[in-house]
Amino acid sequence: MSDALFITFEGGEGVGKTTNIEYFKELMVQSGLDFVSTREPGGTPLAEEIRSLLLSTRDEAVCSNAELLLMFAARSQHLATVIEPALKQGVHVICDRFTDATYAYQGYGRKLGTERIAVLEGLVHGDRQPDLTIILDAPVEVGMGRARNRGELDRFEREDLEFFERVRKGYLARAKAAPDRYEIVDASLELDEVKQQVAEIFERRVVERLGAQHDG
Ligand code: Z5A
């Protein structure tokens, strides 16, 4: 069986996922680990088209179920053509968001609840879960402040503070329910301090784990 790890990064808007994924990738390269880096929604030509549909602002209100199904449509294609093939070849996968984002944004943010998400999760990737999920956590105002310095807002970024408070609550509830899979990083700190936490997680959850597997 392949030793390859499936690692996901999660968090609310502007918490620093992109920045810290770049840092995590540097650590992977320095350790000589083969990986693909990808994102959701997206990661394949079809899934990137679905991403554009989901993120663009439009006059027509998007119903929450349609949004949910599009997330899983993109995910299904992404799993079949990028994530599963890489893992089967022993290549680690680093993914910017995955199904935890659906629980947090659609389940909590849009108030769809978790039951129908669990049904779709079972259908699309019942037996595939991330080995490690790093949640970058910060007070909503901090992330929003950082993200909103960047210019034009997408359809999600236009949501209000209460929406993102629910999203944050959703992530923390997920981590609490299955603490072995999650690492929570205090992303409100200075970037150097955030990176220190990420490096410590990398050492403990990636280097030590793979070392132990290879020794065995
Ligand atoms: N979505 C969903 O609803 N359901 C799903 O199932 C999935 C996704 C998969 C697109 O995601 C949207 O899709 C997302 C949820 C929804 N919408 N929202 N919100 P995305 O991941 O592409 O978009 P995002 O969450 O908006 O990510 P982002 O805005 O790119 O933020 P980020 O990657 O977390 O942050 P960043 O770009 O690394 O950092 C933001 C700025 O802060 C930047 O200028 C950095 O230099 C700065 N920064 C970063 N860290 C620090 C620290 N520590 N101190 C100071 N400044 C910092």
UniProtKB/TrEMBL annotation:
Single GO cellular component term: cytosol
GO molecular function, one term: ATP binding
Reaction catalysis annotation: dTMP + ATP = dTDP + ADP
Stored Gene3D superfamilies: P-loop containing nucleotide triphosphate hydrolases
Domain Thymidylate kinase-like: 9-198
Keywords: ATP-binding, Kinase, Nucleotide biosynthesis, Nucleotide-binding, Transferase
Highest taxon of source: Bacteria
NCBIfam families assigned: DTMP_kinase
Protein name: Thymidylate kinase
Source species of the chain: Litoribrevibacter albus
Gene name of the encoded protein: tmk
